[in-house]
Design brief:
The structure is a homodimer of 305-residue chains. The first copy, chain A, is α/β, with parallel strands linked by helices. The first copy, chain A, has 11 helices and 13 strands. Chain A has a single domain, classed as Ribokinase (UDP-N-acetylmuramoyl-L-alanine:D-glutamate ligase, 3-Layer(aba) Sandwich).
C-alpha cells in the first residue's frame, strides 16, 4: 500500500530546560514522514521557501520520502519558535511566521492520486478536504487538528471529520472538540459524528484509543531523559500510519499494534532535539522497543490468574 | 496469610461538581480494609471517638474486618472536609480536625502480632515504625505517605522507608520525596534508599511500578462518571495487598496482577460517594473488571506481529 501525508515542513527554534536549537528541521509532515519511513515509502505534500536548506532535502531523500508533492515557492519557509518548561507536556509558542505557508494550495502530483493510506496533518481543514478531493479511492484516512481550527473553523473541521476514519488528537483538543470534560464521554460524542476510531494522545501519560465497541490504553515509554517533545505527536502518527501501511492489517488487533509502534516512534523522537534521534534509528531498535512495550504492559500472559 | 492495616478511620465531608456528602464514613484504613475484604480478612489498627456511629462499626463487621485493634477513645472522631473541582485528580482540603487522632498510639492486640502482610497507611512515620516494632516477622511491608510527612518528618520517614518492601505513593509525592522532576530518575533514587518496589499512583492516568530491573505501566479504567475520587489511592492499596495476601504469590507476575486488582478497586470506588460503591460489590464484578483490564491493554496476544 502507499502512504500520503500533507502537513507542514518548517524551520523550528526550540528552547527546553536542557538546551536550545535554532532554525532546525521541523514541521508536522517532516516528523510524520521520517517516522513512517522506517516502515514504508511516504509521499509528502507540503510547501517550503527558497531558503529551505538543500541538506534537509537531501536528508528526506535518504529516507526515500517521495518529494514530488513538495512545492518550493518564492519566499521564506514557515518558521515556529517555542519553548518548554520543566513540565514538558505543553509547548509555549513564542512566534509563528507562516511565510510561504500562507499561499499553500496542496496540489497532488498524478503519481500520488492512487494513494491508499492518507494522513491529513494539522493544517486548515479546508486544505485537508482539498487533498481528499484529489485522491481517488483511499482505503483509510486519518487526520490531526488543533485548537486553532476547532475554535476558528469548526464547520469546515466537522466536514473533514465526516470524511475520515481515524482522528488523532491530544486530550485537550478532544475535550474542546466535544465540549465535554470527561474523556470517555467526549470520545463517544466525537465518534458519533463520523470517525470510526479516535486516538487521544496524552503526552507522558500515553494514548487512549476508542472505537464504537472497545477502548485501548497504551502507556508512554518511561524515559529518564526527555530533551525535546517537539514532533512527538507527529512521530506517533507516522509510526502508526507507517506500520498500518506496511502490515496492511486494518483489524482492531492491527490498529492496536500500530498504536504501540506509534508510541515507540514518539518515545525515540523526544530523546533528542529536532529529528536528531529519528534520523539515525534502525528497524531493529524500533522492534526491540516494541517488545519492551510488551514487557511494560503485560500482566496476564506471565501466568494464569 | 494475614493482612494488617494501620491508618485512619474518619468522618468525611466532601463536595464534588456532582454533589455533596456530609460526615460520611471515610479514612485511609476504612477504604483499604473494605477494598481488601473482597480478597482476605483484614486486621485493622486505628482510632475513633465515642461519636463514631454504631452503623459504621456494623458495616465493617459485615465485611469480616477484625476490629480488635480499633481503639475507641473519649472525644470526637477524626474529621476531614474537602472539595474537588472538575479536575478531579486533586482534592482541596478545607478543614482537618484531628480530634482523637492526636492521641493515637497504635497498640497491636496479641492476635495481630503474627501478621505476615502489613500496610502502613498514611500516618506519622513514627507511628508507622511503632506498628512495625510490634509485628513479629512480617513477610511483606508496604507503606503510603504524603507531602506533610515528606516535608515535616523526612528523617523519620526515611527510617520507615528502610524497613518497607513496597512504597505506594502518588506522582507528586514521588517527585517531592526524591527531589527530582523526572519520574524514572525519581524512582531510581527512591529504590536506592531501601524499598524493592515503588508504585506511583497517577489518578486518571493509572499506575507506574518500578523495581530494580523492570517497569510496569497500568492504565486507569476509563470511566464515564467519576463522582468522588476520595479514597481511590487507599482502595488501590487495599485491592493490591488483599490480592497479594489471598494469592500468596509475591513474584513479579503476582505483584503485577495485584496492581491490576488494585486498579479495579480504585475504579469502582470513584463511581460513588464515600464507600457506597465498595460496599455493594461482588467478587464476580471485580473479576469481570479485571478481565476488562486485559482487553483494555492487550495488543500482542491478539495475533502474532
Amino acid at each position: 500500500m502507499s502512504l500520503l501525508v500533507v502537513g507542514t515542513v518548517a524551520l523550528d527554534s526550540v528552547k527546553t530546560p536542557f538546551g536550545e536549537a535554532r532554525d532546525v528541521l521541523g514541521g508536522s509532515a517532516t516528523y510524520f514522514a521520517t517516522a513512517a519511513s522506517y516502515f514504508t515509502r511516504v509521499r509528502l505534500v507540503a510547501v517550503v521557501g527558497r531558503d529551505f536548506p538543500e541538506e534537509h532535502l537531501r536528508f528526506l531523500k535518504t529516507k526515500e520520502i517521495d518529494l514530488a508533492g513538495l512545492q518550493i515557492l518564492e519566499g521564506q519557509t514557515f518558521r515556529w519558535r517555542g519553548e518548554y518548561g520543566f513540565q514538558l507536556n505543553e509547548a509555549r509558542t513564542l512566534e509563528t511566521r507562516l511565510n510561504v505557508l500562507e499561499r499553500f494550495l496542496p496540489i497532488l502530483p498524478a503519481s500520488y492520486r492512487g494513494s491508499e493510506m492518507i494522513f491529513l496533518g494539522n493544517i486548515d481543514p479546508v486544505l485537508q478536504q482539498e487533498v481528499l478531493s484529489q485522491v481517488e479511492k483511499p482505503r483509510l484516512v486519518a487526520c490531526d487538528t488543533m485548537n486553532f481550527w476547532i475554535e476558528g473553523k469548526r464547520d469546515e473541521l466537522e466536514r473533514t471529520l465526516k470524511q475520515v476514519d481515524i482522528v488523532i488528537i491530544n486530550d485537550g483538543e478532544a475535550r474542546e472538540l466535544a465540549d465535554e470534560a470527561n474523556l470517555v464521554t467526549a470520545a463517544k460524542k466525537i465518534l458519533s459524528n463520523g470517525p470510526k476510531t479516535l486516538i487521544i494522545k496524552r503526552g507522558e501519560y500515553g494514548v487512549l484509543m476508542f472505537n464504537e465497541k472497545t477502548a485501548f490504553a497504551a502507556p508512554a515509554y518511561p524515559l529518564e531523559a526527555v530533551f525535546d517533545p517537539t514532533g512527538a505527536g507527529d512521530s506517533f502518527a507516522g509510526g502508526f500510519m507507517g506500520y498500518l501501511t506496511q502490515s496492511g492489517d486494518l483489524s482492531e488487533a492491527g490498529i492496536r499494534r500500530a498504536v504501540i509502534f506509534g508510541s515507540v516512534m514518539a518515545s525515540f523522537n523526544v530523546e533528542s532535539f529536532s529529528l536528531d534521534r529519528l534520523r539515525r534509528l534502525t528497524r531493529r531498535e524500533i522492534d526491540d522497543r516494541y517488545r519492551e512495550f510488551g514487557r511494560l504492559t503485560s500482566f496476564e500472559d506471565l501466568k494464569a490468574i
